[in-house]
Amino acid sequence: MKKNWFVAALAGLALLSALPAAQAHRTWLLPSMGVVDDKGAWVTFDAAVSEDLFVFGANAVKLDGLLITAPDGSKLAAANPFTGKLRSTFDLQLTQEGTYRVSLVNESAMASYKVGTETKRWRGNVADMAKEIPADAQDVRRTVTQSRLETFVLAVKGNDTALKPAGKGLEVLPLSSLDSFAPGAPARFRVLLDGKPLPELTVAVIPGGVRHRGVLREQAVKTDAQGEFSVKWLDAGMYAISASYPPRAPQPPAGAAPAAPPAQPAVRYTYMGTVEVLPE
């Protein structure tokens, strides 16, 4: 029997939202250093999917859609890009002082539709969706996902040029300087959706090292009316900042009948960023 991959994918998404955060696979982009004291230094970046945050264990993330913005706003090319089984990697030389923004931005689509009595499924690029679905198709359901993996690197002294909003998709931009991130010190961020502040959105802040720590220590914070939130770092180390929109429906109480699968939004936005917190 042919597998119904579209229904399975939806079921997988529902199951993923029901699992404890420690069990979910996460997609991330990690710099070897987030704050660098010397101009001219090299930083290596890894991109992967894994169950344990920042530990290679599932598969690599392709480097399609890689955007590197220099402190002066210019676009840079990655050096030595490579994709293996468990990770993709590339290098960047920090030839300017200031803040670099490194992003993997992608958009994908999937759809289901009927031709006569037969249900068909499709997945691919957004640009191909219209021509791949027959004009006489019935009961068409389309979902577009816009994803952003991101990290920031400060060389010597930070600036804000690379932190200007892209204006498309979900963004989480630091309002506090990267070199001020320290345990116990509050840091402020702003969440934007298509360039506009997004209030009342829950954002997850997760320290790396859970594989050896054994406890996730996730913080859930909510944006205010200006789309801003504040977080106090627990310890030094690398942190993931994760958000998605629209919010997923809450899970029913234990013992209650499972809720019907929600209708898929026309567009779903996801964000995963990485920042470094240094000791005081």
What does the model show?
The chain has 280 residues and is mainly beta. It has one domain (5-250, 258-277). Helix content is 9%, strand content 46%. Strands 2, 5, 6, 9, 10, 11, 15, 16, 18 and 19 form a 10-stranded mixed β-sheet that branches. Strands 1, 3, 4, 7 and 8 form a 5-stranded antiparallel β-sheet that branches. The model is unreliable at 1-23 (pLDDT under 50).
Strand content range: over 45%
How many structural domains in the coordinates?
1
Low-confidence stretches: 1-23
Question: What sequence of helices (H) and strands (E) makes up the elements?
Answer: HEEEEEEEEEEHEEEEEHEEEE
* Helix content class: under 10%
List keywords for this structure.
280 residues, mainly beta, 3 helices, 19 strands, disordered N terminus
What would a concise description of this structure say?
With 280 residues, this protein is mainly beta. The chain has three helices and 19 strands.
List the helices and strands and how they pair.
Elements: H1 5-18, E1 26-31, E2 35-36, E3 42-50, E4 59-60, E5 66-69, E6 75-76, E7 79-83, E8 88-93, E9 98-115, E10 118-124, H2 126-132, E11 138-155, E12 170-174, E13 186-193, E14 196-197, E15 202-207, H3 210-213, E16 219-222, E17 228-232, E18 237-245, E19 267-277
Parallel strand pairs: 2-11, 11-19
Antiparallel strand pairs: 1-3, 3-4, 3-8, 5-6, 5-9, 7-8, 9-10, 9-11, 12-13, 13-14, 13-17, 15-16, 15-18, 18-19
